[in-house]
Amino acid sequence: MQNDITPALENFFSKSTKNEIAQLSYKISVYSLRFGFKNQWFVTNEGEVNLNYFRDIYPSIFKLITYLIDIINIQETIVNNYQRELFCFNLIGIMFRNITNTSIDRVNISVNFSATPITNDMMIAMLKSHINHASVDFACTDKIADIYLSDMIDDDVLGEQVIWKKPPTLSDWTALGELIVKIKKMKSVK
Questions:
Q1: Structural contact between residues 22 and 30, judged by C-beta atoms closer than 8 angstroms
Q2: What is the pLDDT, as a whole number, of residue 167?
Q3: Do residues 149 and 164 touch, judged by C-beta distance below 8 A?
Q4: pTM to 2 decimal places
Q5: What is the SS3 assignment for the chain?
Q6: What order do you get walking across the sheet with 160-163 strand by strand?
Q7: What is the rounded CA–CA span in Å between residue 42 and residue 63?
Q8: Are 72 and 78 a contacting pair, CB within 8 Å?
Q9: Distance from chain centroid for Cα 88
Q10: What separation in angstroms does the CA of 148 have from each of 32, 137, 143, 180, 185?
């Protein structure tokens, strides 16, 4: 099984070393052996999980996981949907370090507020504290970004523009989060 998993991981985590891929493939293979018999699912009931958050911030991972499950499940031993979600969740856990160390589903946000450069630094610090692990990068005044966050419209910007004239409200944060998810999903389709 590990020999079948390794090529998929090498393609997806192309910046990882051969050793990292081998270790990751081994961990996935060993974890998957636990579910080698249909009745094993019923013996180890670990509960249900909701993967919507991970589907939103790492949509490409679910393409990889679907492919990995097809490889792992060649004998059709993974049978229950809610336990399949748990299996996916645990695969994400196994791969999480590799996921966060790469540019998978990366979104770039350019911050350019008119007050002062210190305002931009403060806004970036605030954004990082709210969006700390969702593959989002921040820069100041870069007009080539997925999202341009400012307090004024700029006609030269090519990406999506988000305007915050006052301190952001809950609906402002929600709208920004939804835009990030939309861009991630669009990128994962390409």
A1: no
A2: 85
A3: yes
A4: 0.78
A5: CHHHHHHHHHHHCCCCCHHHHHHHHHHHHHHHHCCCCCCHHHHCCCCCCCCHHHHHHCHHHHHHHHHHHHHHCCCCCCCCHHHHHHHHHHHHHHHHHHHHCCCCCCEEEEEECCCCHHHHHHHHHHHHHHCCCCCEEEEECCCCCCEEEECCCCCCCCCEEEECCCCCCHHHHHHHHHHHHHHHHHHHHC
A6: 136-140, 107-112, 147-150, 160-163
A7: 27
A8: yes
A9: 13
A10: 42, 12, 7, 11, 18
Distance (Å, whole) CA 188 – CA 60 = 5
User: Which tokens hold the place of 67?
Assistant: 């492919």
Tokens found for residue 155? 């006609």
Type of residue numbered 108: N
Give pLDDT tens digits for 28-53: 988 887 765 554 444 445 556 788 88
Give whole-number Cα distances, 104 to 24, 136, 137, 176, in Å: 17, 10, 12, 19
Q: Which residue has the tokens 């490409």?
A: 60
